[in-house]
Every structure is written in structure tokens, then in C-alpha cells.
Amino acid sequence: MTADVNKKQSGIEIGIYTLADLGPDPLTGRTISAHQRIKEMIEAAKLADEAGLDVFGLGEHHRLDYAVSSPPVVLAAIAQATKRIRLTSATTVLSTVDPVRLFEDFATLDLVSDGRAEIIAGRGAFVESFPLFGYDTHDYDALFSENIELLLKLNEHEKLSWNGRFRSSLNAAEISPRPVQNKLPIWVGVGGTPDSAIRAGRLGVGMAMAILGGDPKRFVPLVDAYRKAAAHAGHAPEELCIGVTGHCYLASTTQQAKDEFFPYYSNYWAYVNRQRGMGFRMSRDDFEQMAAADTALFVGSPQQIIEKILRQHELFGHRRFLAQMDIGGLPFQKVMEGIELLDSA
Hints:
Oligomer: single chain
Radius of gyration: 20 Å
Organism: Brevibacillus invocatus
Shape: globular
CATH architecture: Alpha-Beta Barrel
Protein name: LLM class flavin-dependent oxidoreductase
Keywords: Monooxygenase, Oxidoreductase
GO molecular function, one term: monooxygenase activity
Helix content: 40-55%
Structural class: alpha/beta
Pfam families: Bac_luciferase (PF00296)
């Protein structure tokens, strides 16, 4: 039985996501504008939709080296260029956004897209949105906890009374508009902490795990903690959704994929590490170890990518895999070729 048949039988949704980083092409030194980056993302989503992929995700950042600070605005534009692909944030920085405004924006996106909107909520890898919107980083976790609880209530109720610590109270407030879907699908993004997995399980929301490298087996305890917390809270197993996100590059052969992707992947981590105040730069030997057959970095032929997806499915039983393919200043033509190869896998 082929890997493609196994993938279809497992019921895994396949999609792509982007964080809209504005990195220089390491081979030409050229950095495209935010205007061009957004245009290219819309075209990538259109091709993914036409290719039959299931999901398109868009990240949120509030700094000049990323092109998107408002995912629902760009996703609304993508909704008009696509027909069936589901549209999600990846992720919404929930600690520094008003949950009421967030729900209204994505409910509106749901209306515009005929019922295709989703939210992946997380705490974010960067903290620039805290001073930008007047929040204290000392409240990092408390803000997220309060906001996710409120967001879920907004998803349940057309009218809501509510009191919290960080925003004004709601008194029989009308929450409008309501989405096309009965409720917006809401996921929590989990980077590797058991507390985040337990919270997602307790709340009964989807868990989207960012697995960017290393041995994926190290995430099995998070999946177990998620399912155990969900069961303890009374959520049925069939209600739970697990997703995996990861970096991905495809070419006709695995060697070709490694040779083509290495300068861009090394470049990506060079500027991401600079953004975080670190100086590590990846060598080719580092890259070869990261891209080995038993790791979570998806670099190879379509067959090898599917084998890695299925290997992770044996570990996690997840429903969805999202590939981040457009990093490190990778030329748009290579992104388009990767989408076509992912569809053929």
C-alpha cells in the first residue's frame, strides 16, 4: 500500500501556513516589500486552494521585518480569491488582543468566506505587541488565560455578561455578527510546555503543536497530557483535534531538496536568532542532522515528506499537518513549486 493511500485513509488534512517574514534572499541579497509579500501570499493561497489543499494559515507579528499584523484583513482578501480552503490565524497573539474584537473580526471573515474561518490562538514568540498595545509582559500568562476563557464564551453566546481583570465588563452585551458556522473552530498553539497542552485539553479546544525540529517523539507526553486533561474535564475523545505544524521544503529528490533549501534555512535561523538576541549560525552539518529521516524537519522528496507525516501520525494520531514553506527569503517560484509537490505527495 502506498504512502499516498495511507495518508488518505488516515484522514489527515494537509495545508500550508506563513508568518510573512521579510528576510533577504541569501543568494541575491534582495528583500521584497511588504506589499509584494502580501500579493505573493494571496497567490500562494489561491494555488493551494486550486491544488486541493485543506487549510491556509497566516501568522501575526508587529514589527517591520514581518508583513502581516492583521491576519483577518489579509485572510478576508484571500477568501475572495479562493473557494474551499479553510482560513486560519497561525497564530493570533491572544494575550494582547481584545477577545471581543477578535471574535467579531473572525466571525466577519467567516461570513465573507462562507464558513471557512478558524482561529489558532497562542502567546507568541515575540513580545513587541505588549508595549504597543499597553500590556505588561509580567501578565503574559494571566492575559492569555483570561482571554481564551472569554473568547470561548463569546463563541458560545450571542449575548453575554462577563467580568474579568484586564478589560471592561460585559453586561448582556450583544456579540455581533455571528458566524456562518455554528461555532468558530478554535485551537491553542502549543510550543512544548505541558501546561499549555493541559490547558487546551481542559478547555476542549484543538491543540496545534509547533514541531520545528528534533525527534518528534518528545511531543508524545504533550499529546498524552492533552488527552488526559480533556478526559478529566469531560470532553469526548472524538471532540479533540490535534494538529502539527512544521518547516517544509520539497523537491524531486531528497538530495536536491537539501541542496536547494540549506542556504535559505540557514539564513532564516540567522535572522530569527538575531531578532531574539542570539548569534548562532547553522552549518551544513547542523542542517544535515536536522533534516535526517527520523527528525521533524520536513525536507525531501514528496514520498519522504509523506513518510514523515505518517510516522508522526503513528505517534500523535493528529488530524492536521500544516507546512511552513516560504521562509528564509525563498523565491516565490520555489514556494509555488513546493505547493504543487505537496499536493502530488
